[in-house]
């Protein structure tokens, strides 16, 4: 039995509920203008975990003994404890609300929409794995949708986390890459066009500084001030924040992005 089969079996034994609705899709949100992710996808053909890339749009603890390693050991019964980095699962979220911007935009404005076939080799947890959840699901037993429907907190946090086990190939496992319209006519669109999957567009993220200033306590007034300083013609969008990478603390830019994702979604 392979590592990912052992992981699936371990999670299945701890799951309950009805089968998953196969109309739902796992989406993998990310920032398409950070590093060379799209070029790497075109060259290598597979989307890989932060254990391989050494980068993350959340916390970066993917190393032996780190938090991500420990969480995976707990969730998957140790199946990946001694696994090569490339064998580890890819993280996304289950798009229960069929949102045009993907299931977890807190991690980026773009997303890969995976095929229905990926559901059969996915495991799920609720809430996010960093909270060390006790509720799990697989395609055959999925009660997590009921739990997520009761979420009444920050919309950016109410997702069902997904882990796709086995390689995630762009040519076989991705229905489309879905981009923000601020990237039309840019290098991001050109890079996406080289991928062996459809390129689609969602309605976009765009936040005015007037709206930004109305929420000083969401992430903190210092991040409102940073967002105002970055704005172009009084607005923030994913490309504006992406252009500031390398000029500001990445954790600060992440919080500015949370403002845009939370209050600037046009869908």
Automatic annotation (TrEMBL):
Spell out the InterPro entries in the cross-references.
DUF3626
* Top-rank lineage group of the source organism: Bacteria
Annotated protein name in UniProt: DUF3626 domain-containing protein
């Amino acid at each position: 039995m392979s590592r990912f089969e052992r992981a699936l079996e371990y999670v299945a034994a701890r799951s309950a509920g009805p089968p998953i609705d196969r109309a739902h899709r796992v989406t993998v949100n990310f920032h398409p203008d950070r590093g060379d992710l799209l070029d790497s996808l075109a060259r290598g053909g597979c989307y890989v975990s932060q254990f391989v890339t050494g980068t993350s749009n959340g916390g970066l603890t993917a190393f032996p003994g780190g938090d991500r390693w420990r969480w995976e050991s707990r969730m998957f019964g140790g199946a990946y404890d001694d696994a090569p980095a490339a064998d580890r699962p890819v993280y996304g979220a289950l798009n229960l609300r069929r949102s045009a911007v993907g299931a977890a935009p807190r991690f980026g404005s773009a997303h890969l929409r995976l095929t229905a076939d990926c559901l059969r080799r996915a495991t799920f947890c609720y809430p996010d794995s960093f909270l060390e959840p006790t509720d799990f699901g697989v395609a055959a037993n999925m009660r997590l949708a009921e739990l997520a429907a009761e979420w009444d907190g920050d919309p950016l946090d109410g997702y069902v986390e997904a882990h796709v086990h086995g390689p995630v190939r762009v040519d076989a496992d991705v229905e489309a890459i879905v981009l923000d319209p601020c990237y039309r006519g840019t290098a991001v669109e050109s890079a996406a066009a080289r991928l062996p999957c459809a390129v689609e567009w969602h309605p976009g993220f765009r936040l005015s500084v007037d709206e930004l200033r109305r929420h000083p306590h969401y992430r903190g007034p210092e991040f409102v001030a940073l967002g105002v300083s970055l704005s172009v013609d009084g607005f923030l969008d994913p490309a504006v924040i992406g252009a500031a990478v390398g000029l500001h603390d990445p954790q600060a830019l992440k919080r500015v992005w949370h403002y845009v994702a939370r209050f600037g979604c046009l869908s």
